[in-house]
Amino acid sequence: MAEVIVVTSGKGGVGKTTSSAAFATGLAQRGKRTVVIDFDVGLRNLDLIMGVERRVVFDIVNVISGEARLNQALIRDKRVDCLQILPASQTRDKDALTKEGVGKIIEELSKDNDYILCDSPAGIEKGALMALYFADQAIVVTNPEVSSVRDSDRILGVLQSKSRRAEEKRDPVKEHLLVTRYDPARVEKGEMLKLDDIREILAIPLLGVIPESESVLKASNTGNPVIMDQESVAGQAYKDAVSRFLGEKVEHRFLEPAKKGIFSRLFGGRAA
Amino acid sequence: MSWLADIFRSRKPEPATASQAKERLQIVLAHERIGRTREDFLPKLQQEIVAVVARYVSIDPGRVNVSLDRGGDMSTLAIEIDLPGPGAQGGRRASA
Ligand SMILES: Nc1ncnc2c1ncn2[C@@H]1O[C@H](COP(=O)(O)OP(=O)(O)O)[C@@H](O)[C@H]1O
Ligand SMILES: [Mg+2]
Fold first, then answer.
1. Percentage of residues in chain A with pLDDT exceeding 90?
2. Do A193 and B22 lie within an 8 Å CB cutoff?
3. Spatial distance between the Cα atoms of A16 and A96, rounded to a whole number of angstroms
């Protein structure tokens, strides 16, 4: 049986898709059989971030409506073994997702995978509810910014009341906090919420802190999940977070501003 | 000589805003979390107060003014209702 993990946030543009791609790739790199599903029906993007956009033939809605078999819609990653991507539909809307349809797909994928990652769309409507309904664990992606923290709190409430685990009164969905786009230099200046404040407010276990990093844009330009770039601080931070997820004890890094040498101070070096 | 003013202005350190962010979040979330487990009673309280007043005097629903300020330790709900006077001139005011 696979563990179902939803990557969610309430708010849009905080790094869910970036994190889903990185986590799925990271888990597969660690030998875990992993599928990552794009639930953002109508606004498909995971295919681009994973670099498989040219290989999309069928999508999750085709599978639910019986127009294609699951095997036909799954795209096998060419870089990492045991990693597959199930794209979202670009032409349909979120009403095409049904609990029964999604449930069947997850059940079938559960048979021969270790992890099923669900990349949630923004909001707390149909698409987001479908993405989180079957979850055993949730990675709550949060930026150090008031609206993002508030929306994360809201989505935690939804996880606790509207997930299948909540409905069936089983053990609650296991929650993990992933802070992304963290800028230690701005935190030091008092311009940005600090990690401890976010932790105090949301009060769920911390999985990782991904620093703001230019390499994320480079990664999406080329369609390589940023975790594959181990030169970059964001890639390293995602790798650490995956290790923590798998139960290893890893110190948090990149929480302080990078010490800049005289050279980079003069020429304005930025975080890689 | 505005460039001179600009130079001096840019030297003045800006106040840190992150602590305000934290404080505001703590207050708003404290309220939203209550709303999640039980219904927010304030809208209902307001309706009932207005209904009670309406039992004694006829009031114009368009002239009911409600304001709410959700605070950390205390919230205030102010309801202002314009009451038509006996000569229907100006009108008295009741506050709850
Ligand atoms: N750690 C980071 N550093 C810099 N930019 C980031 C980081 N994480 C995400 N981004 C950028 O933020 C934007 C939104 O990211 P995305 O993963 O698409 O968010 P979501 O799926 O939550 O809408 C993208 O342009 C992405 O490149
Ligand atoms: Mg997304």
1. 92
2. yes
3. 22
- Give the burial class of A71: count Cβ atoms within 10 A of its Cβ; 0-12 exposed, 13-18 middle, 19 or more buried: exposed
- Determine whether B94 is exposed, middle or buried from the number of CB atoms within 10 Å of its CB (0-12, 13-18, 19+): middle
pLDDT of A264: 57
In the prediction, which pLDDT does A2 show? 97
Q: Which atom of ligand 1 is nearest to the CA of A220?
A: 27
Q: What are phi and psi of A268, to 5 degrees?
A: 65, 50
pLDDT at residue number B3: 60
Nearest neighbour of B18 by CB, restricted to A150, A161, A190 = A190
Q: Nearest-CA residue of chain B relative to A151?
A: B29
- Nearest CA to A149 out of B25, B39, B20, B11 is that of B25
Q: Per the structure, how many domains does chain B have?
A: 1
- Full-model pTM: 0.84
Q: What is the average per-residue pLDDT within A56-78?
A: 95
The whole-angstrom separation of Cα A83 and Cα A34 is 5
Question: Would you say domain A3-251 falls under CATH 3.40.50.300?
Answer: yes
Q: What is the pLDDT of residue B91?
A: 47
The answer to whether A98 is a known ligand-binding residue is: no
What is this model's ipTM? 0.82
Nearest CA to ligand 1 atom 13: A13
Structural domain boundaries in chain A: 3-251
Residue A39 vs residue B6, higher pLDDT: A39
Per-residue pLDDT at A71:
95
Q: Establish if B13 belongs to a structural domain.
A: no
**Residue of A149, A154, A192 lying closest to B25 (CB–CB):** A149
Query: Does any domain span residue B91?
Result: no
Q: Which residues between 132 and 191 in chain A have a beta carbon less than 8 angstroms from any beta carbon of chain B?
A: 145-146, 149-150, 153-154, 157, 161, 187, 189-191
